[in-house]
Amino acid sequence: MASNRPAPEAPFGSYDPIGHPTVSGIPDAAAPAATVEWNPTEDTVRPVRGRHRVVKQRGGLARSSTVLGVGVIAAVGAGGMATAHDKPRVAISLPDVNLPDASSLPGVGALISDDADGKADTAEEAPAPSNLATLTLSADQAAADAQGAGTEADAGEALRTRILQQVEQQQASAEAEAQAAAEKAAAEKAAQEAAAQQATAEAAAKAAEAERKRAEQEAAAKAEAERLAKLAASYALPTSSYTITSTYGQAGSMWSSGYHTGLDLAAPTGTPANAVHGGTIKSAGWSGSYGYRIVLELSDGTEIWYCHLSSMTVSAGQTVSTGETIGRVGATGNVTGPHLHMEVHTPSGGGIDPLAWLRGKGLTV
After folding, report:
1. Which portions of this protein are annotated as coiled-coil regions (predicted)?
2. Least crowded by CB within 10 Å, which of 51, 323, 357, 365?
3. Owning domain of residue 316
4. Of the spans 99-108, 112-121, 159-168, 272-281, which averages the highest pLDDT?
5. Contacts of 13 by beta carbon, 8 Å cutoff, 6+ apart
6. Residue 34 pLDDT
């Protein structure tokens, strides 16, 4: 088992804090004051080995202020790279102090250079002052990289903002298009509904107009029927038991005018000829091709001619009533057989269709 070697004694024993020699820790007044500073060296102070070896202190007195400054700069540079996205760059300045080298301090050099391994560790952990510029440049480069990362972050944020703006614009455009389509659909639907309502209104109007016309026609027909009924009560057929053989306007060579000017009602000779309406006998006598003819003038100036009579029972100027017998059917004049030739003349003297005139008076012929 190894034992600890005793440390060599100092040349003058022990010393008090101000450099005076002491004996057993008590200052010796007779001893001369130290005139030479005692600086331990590797020869005078040997490292203690074994169980009681003193472990080297790292980060303590073995590090100079310059080394500490370099560590601070490196730490700040690392922190800057970690927080470059969030914090601005921080300038760090250290005072330029002239501190002695750690190996020249009394009792420290041996601790630093304990052995070859210790020297290697010290050299590795405490870079030379010439490396300070390199570390400073590395910190600046880290700050520049952080600044570049910040610039890239700003560019990314700008791109993100632009994308969000485009998304919002597209969304707004889509919403506007949807709203426009909805408004167009609503307008088309409203137009269709309006057109349908208009068509319905027009159909209803047409139906109402048709109903109105139908009602008017019915009312007119009813009024005409009433009028004809009244007229029928005041008008009468010119004869009875007859057969229509010729009508008004019928063409033929047997008539001097080239067409038939009246209505022929064939009936046996002696059949009564009646006044169609009340009026005055304008004339009664022979009239050439008409044979015996009676002219009845109505109150409105219309003349009714009764021709080819076999006999007459009235005279000119006589007033007759509706349905009164004024003569008898015969075959006098230019005829082919017994019949009543009837003509209707307007007040102006022109002839009209007797069949239409009779029916216009409500008579069924």
Report:
1. 164-228
2. 51
3. 243-360
4. 272-281
5. 21, 22, 23
6. 47
